[in-house]
Design goal:
D-Maltodextrin-Binding Protein, domain 2, seven-stranded mixed β-sheet
Length: 600
């Protein structure tokens, strides 16, 4: 779906979207959770009840709570999923909302409390390199006692493609391996895709001229270009909303959320390279870099005019220190992936050499874009005690295009442009302020206390469109989105035909209309990545859930019927008579190397 700006809409056709939702008959989770309706099409049986296997038990669908607008979206989608599976496939579904950490802990510990999980992936720029996301579903992460695999998906072909791409230097060969992994995951219906995430924001044009948002990255706090290129039109300061985690500490590597890294690794500090507002990789502090033929030695030349905020030059030694601090303390820094390196050498003031044990293409595309280069003298104490370190908030020295004027932990941060940055030249001060909940953000924006708001739910954006004539809004699809993670290790969801059927019958059109106000197109291919992700293969390489965004009940039933599934006289789904209901591995254990040779 194209990017939508509010000024492009016809003001004569403005509609109160909440009335549309009322007309659609939006259902709440509370109204459906625990109900036990079943499909009524008793005529679509595979034969008499004596010819059927066991009845498919009630499926438990979990969704994440405590996440503001994200939870509101999931709460609205969950009853549609529940009703579709009950009415169209004859499967009872119980909906449960649980805190994110509880759901993830259960799935990744293979506790088997939930048969399906409804959730989303955040568009962290480091995920533009597919390695992190692909790695989440490798067989070695599935089962109990392993790093965790939310779907408990285990396939050796997929795992081998995912692992091989991490060390393949040739770009075309690596792309082929990535596409092969995604294709395998799609054919296995690793997830049941629903929709892209909506990236939405708004601004007061009499306060700010917004830039850096309309080429792909959107009005998202994870997009640093919206801060680089937005300029105050009234005064010299742009005020925006911030998530509390973004200003939770000065010791930002200790925080698990990627949201803190945009402020500290792109605004206050600059990385060697980063993804721009078109989602393309570009050099920042690195003027150039080259790799040896075997891909194990990477040489970086820094801009010779790059300086820290106190005037110190950004040197190769600062780069060396930054990555030794991160990689040598990966246990203390949850967002750090420890790289297999032999040494990092400061060849001269502006040349640094990374000597890796293996070819490591993700160094350029995933690792460097995440981490800003740190001021060695300021961060040296962190080497001794990384978890307890903190910066002097009155003297924060960074390498980025903004310097810190004021920092109030958990409340706000005020930044001013640093005029000597070698690449970026922002014009206005930026104040990021924490608000308690979306209603507080809306009221502050309505009252003119903040100039622009980023990554808001569609409820807030719709209220702005309905109630604030002079404000402008912007929405667009993300490269990640909402999906259902079926549990691949046991029960009905371990069967490919059941996953295919569930994906076929879902009414994505209704979910998007109710939860996302019709702002995005449905996701009809079972992949984690969405249309704008640079690693997504062409559609003809992928399995397709259905051609109908409203869902295709007959296709879902036919998939099951052809595989021997059937319905009793009450329309309730049963397994095939010869179905092997044994879990792929026992609960509390992990996939066996005998069954999965890639684990040997």
């Amino acid at each position: 779906m194209p990017v939508i700006d509010s000024e492009e809409q016809d003001s004569d056709t403005t509609v109160n979207r909440r009335r549309i939702l009322q007309a659609l008959g939006t259902t709440t989770v509370a109204g459906l959770a625990g109900c036990s309706g079943t499909g009524s099409n008793g005529g679509n049986t595979a034969g008499s009840n004596d010819e059927l296997g066991e009845r498919v038990p009630t499926q438990t669908l979990a969704y994440w709570t405590g996440l503001g607008g994200t939870t509101a979206t999931l709460e609205t989608m969950a009853p549609v999923v529940q009703k579709n599976l009950q009415d169209r496939l004859g499967v009872d579904v119980e909906v449960q909302g649980r805190e994110l950490t509880a759901v993830l802990g259960s799935a990744m510990g293979d506790k088997r409390e939930y048969d399906m999980i409804l959730g989303t992936n955040a568009p962290d720029p480091s995920r533009l390199d597919p390695t992190e996301v692909l790695g989440m579903y490798e067989a070695g992460r599935a089962g109990a006692g392993n790093p965790g695999n939310i779907a408990n998906y285990a396939d050796c072909s997929y795992t081998e493609f995912s692992q091989q791409q991490r060390t393949t230097i040739d770009e075309a060969e690596r792309a082929d391996l990535i596409h092969s992994a995604i294709q395998q995951f799609s054919e296995d219906v690793g997830v049941i895709a629903i929709s892209p995430r909506v990236i939405a924001g708004a601004w007061h044009p009499d306060q700010v001229s917004v830039g850096g948002h309309d080429s792909g990255a959107g009005m998202d706090p994870l997009n640093p270009y919206v801060y680089y290129e937005s300029e105050a039109t009234d005064g010299d300061t742009v005020v925006s909303n911030a998530n509390a985690v973004m200003v939770s500490t000065t010791n930002f590597p200790t925080v698990a959320s990627p949201r803190i890294h945009i402020i500290w690794s792109h605004l206050i500090n600059s990385p060697l390279v980063e993804y721009d507002d078109s989602l393309e990789l570009r050099n920042v502090l690195a003027e150039e870099y080259t790799a040896s033929e075997d891909g194990t030695t990477i040489t970086v030349t820094l801009h010779d005019d790059a300086t820290f905020h106190n005037g110190d030059p950004v040197t190769a030694e600062d780069v060396r220190f930054t990555y030794k601090l991160l990689w040598d303390n990966a246990d203390a820094y949850p967002q750090v992936t420890a790289m297999p390196y032999e040494s990092i050498e400061a060849v001269d003031e502006t040349t640094v050499e990374f000597n890796m044990k293996n070819p490591t293409p993700v160094l350029f595309t995933k690792v460097w874009p995440r981490w800003g280069i740190l001021h060695k003298e300021s961060w040296k104490p962190a080497m001794e005690n990384p978890a307890e370190f903190s910066l002097d908030t009155d003297n924060i020295i960074g390498s980025g295009p903004f310097q810190v004027d004021s920092f109030r932990q958990g409340q706000m941060i005020q930044l001013s442009p640093y005029g000597d940055h070698p690449v970026f030249n922002p014009k206005s001060r930026q104040v990021m302020q924490v608000f308690q909940g979306s209603e507080s953000v809306f009221r502050a924006f309505q009252n003119g206390q903040i100039s622009m708001i980023l990554m808001q739910g569609m409820d807030t954006i719709t209220r702005i469109r309905d109630e604030m004539e002079n404000a402008k809004t912007h929405t667009q699809d993300s490269y990640l989105g909402a999906q259902i993670w079926p549990q691949h290790s046991y029960g009905a969801t371990k069967f490919l035909k059941f996953r295919q059927a569930a994906g076929a019958v879902l009414d994505r059109q209704q979910m998007i209309a109710q939860a996302q106000y019709g702002e995005v197109d449905p996701s009809l291919y079972p992949t984690i990545f969405r249309g704008s992700h640079p690693s997504l293969p062409s559609e003809d390489q992928l399995y397709k859930h259905t051609d109908d965004p409203a869902g295709n009940e007959e296709r879902g039933r036919q998939l099951l019927r052809e595989a021997g599934w059937g319905w009793d006289n009450n329309g309730r789904l049963h397994y095939p008579p010869d179905a092997d209901l044994t879990p792929l591995w026992p609960q509390g254990e992990s996939p066996s190397p005998e069954e999965y040779p890639c684990l040997q």
